[in-house]
């Protein structure tokens, strides 16, 4: 039900013909993927365990299974890296571009009771803090890419 609520709040953005399909896909990826991290991790580990031929009954840690299969990063790590790549890209855009204008936007409406959910921007800020990166590092594209672990293509 929460997914439907998020989609209904984004209704005006989704129906806007001025916003490209690529930007709408980015919104989908950031909104819906961030809410399903645990399910993604569980599915990923189920895949790696089956691929390695290891059962949960064998009590092998997830890290050991990843080591056996040669999986260096989790899918959530990959998603967070992609979010940082996109964040830096949007921050370097000129101010008249729609993604640049949407990034600081907060939807209006009432919040549910209890602890508020973490916003996409708060997630990016937390990831920057975890990686010990400064917020203005995005100004230098090469340094930004090196810090987030994305190497430049050489072909």
TrEMBL record:
Residues 100-121 are annotated as: Disordered. It comes from the Eukaryota. It comes from Sitophilus oryzae. Residues 109-118 have a biased composition (Basic residues). This is Uncharacterized protein LOC115887907.
């Amino acid at each position: 039900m929460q997914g439907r609520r998020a989609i209904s709040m984004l209704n005006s953005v989704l129906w806007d013909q001025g916003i490209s399909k690529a930007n709408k896909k980015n919104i989908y990826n950031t909104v819906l993927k961030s809410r399903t991290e645990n399910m993604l991790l569980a599915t990923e580990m189920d895949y790696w365990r089956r691929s390695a031929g290891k059962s949960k009954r064998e009590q092998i840690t997830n890290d050991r299974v990843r080591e056996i299969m040669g999986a260096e990063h989790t899918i959530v790590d990959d998603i967070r890296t992609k979010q940082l790549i996109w964040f830096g890209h949007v921050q370097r855009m000129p101010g008249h571009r729609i993604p640049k204008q949407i990034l600081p936007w907060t939807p209006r409406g009432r919040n549910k009771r209890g602890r508020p959910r973490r916003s996409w921007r708060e997630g990016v800020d937390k990831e920057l803090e975890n990686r010990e990166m400064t917020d203005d590092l995005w100004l230098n594209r090469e340094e930004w890419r090196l810090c987030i672990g994305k190497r430049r293509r050489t072909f």
